Amino acid sequence: ILNVEQSPQSLHVQEGDSTNFTCSFPSSNFYALHWYRWETAKSPEALFVMTLNGDEKKKGRISATLNTKEGYSYLYIKGSQPEDSATYLCAFRAAGNKLTFGGGTRVLVKP
Amino acid sequence: EAQVTQNPRYLITVTGKKLTVTCSQNMNHEYMSWYRQDPGLGLRQIYYSMNVEVTDKGDVPEGYKVSRKEKRNFPLILESPSPNQTSLYFCASSPGSTNYEQYFGPGTRLTVT
User: Fold this and answer.
1) Which of A50, B17, B33, B68 could form a disulfide with A55 if both were Cys (CB 3.0 to 4.6 A apart)?
2) Contact status, residue B3 vs residue B12, Cβ threshold 8 Å
3) Cβ within 8 Å, pair A34-B98
4) Each residue's pLDDT tens digit, A15-43
């Protein structure tokens, strides 16, 4: 089983502050890195799928970067709002079509 | 509306009683997958399917079976459920390989007593 780690496990952010957190994955046999947003009592929703080293993706106030050579991706939230409170999951694809998820970073934005 | 549906949403059953959780998608997606979510362990892939009659094991396939007889359906079968299969289960689909974003169903909460 591949090792995909997310840190921190949880963080508290004041409304209006920006934050970022990390997904670490194996640097060999890279095919794709996914980010999902998972709100309590809902299903995970896709944010980004990144496939190229150096990729940067953006959706509103949320953005992500990818470094496949060193095996990490950052997710950034700019100007956090209470509706950004969720668990953020990354998932790594190596060769084949198996997808391995990290444990998630739980973000709580305080008004 | 494009969606992935799962049934049932909630199920309490007893050890050893065979059960099936259905999953259906209306987006003509080739790839479908089952995950289980347990506290502290994140989402773990059980089985996936690249197309009709093509299935493969994920990271935790023991105790589960799947079939893909039609493109839209991907049922998860527990032949003899045990308490350690108590979990939240998600079905997901995507247009092709896992280079595409996955669309998740609403989840099925299973309790095996």
Assistant:
1) A50
2) no
3) yes
4) 999 999 999 999 888 999 999 999 999 99
